[in-house]
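Reviewer 2 asked us to include a model.

Predict the structure of this chain.
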Amino acid sequence: MYRRQPLQTGFSLIELMVAMAILAIVVSVAIPAYNSYIRTARMVEGSDSITALKLAQTEFFQENNFFFTGANTAALIISSNRMWIPTPWDPTLTDAANLAKLNFTYTVANCVLGAGGSGATDAAGNPTECYTVTATGQNLLAATDVLTVSN
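Predicted model (C-alpha cells):
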C-alpha cells in the first residue's frame, strides 16, 4: 500500500526572498518621499508663523507707531506683548518647553533700505518704516532651511 506524505504548507525560501526584495524597493522609494513631505510641511509651518508675525506687526504698529524687534523667538514674544506666538504653541507647556520644540527660531530686525542704509527708526531705535523677519531651521530642520521676509 502506498502511503501519502502530508502536504507542506507555508512559503518557500525563494518566495520569501522575492517578497523581501519587493518590500525593500518600495521602502527605498517611500522613505525619501515621506521625508520630503515632512520637510515641506515644516517649511509651511514656518511660513504660517511668519504670516501671523506680520499681522501682529501691523496691529502693534497701529498701537505704538513702531515695529517690534527681537534677536530670538523668546525676545519677539516679549517685545510683541504676546501678540505673536509661533506655531505650534501648546498653552499647557512652559514657554521654555515650547521654544525647545519649535522647528524654527525667529528674529526680527530693522530692514536695510537702499545701498547699505538702514530703515528709519524712532528715538529709541525701534524700526518705524520696515522690518525683516528671518526664520532659521532648528531641531527637525537644518540650519540651512531659512525663510526671510521683509515688509
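The radius of gyration is 27 Å. The chain has three helices and five strands. We have added this to the supplementary material.
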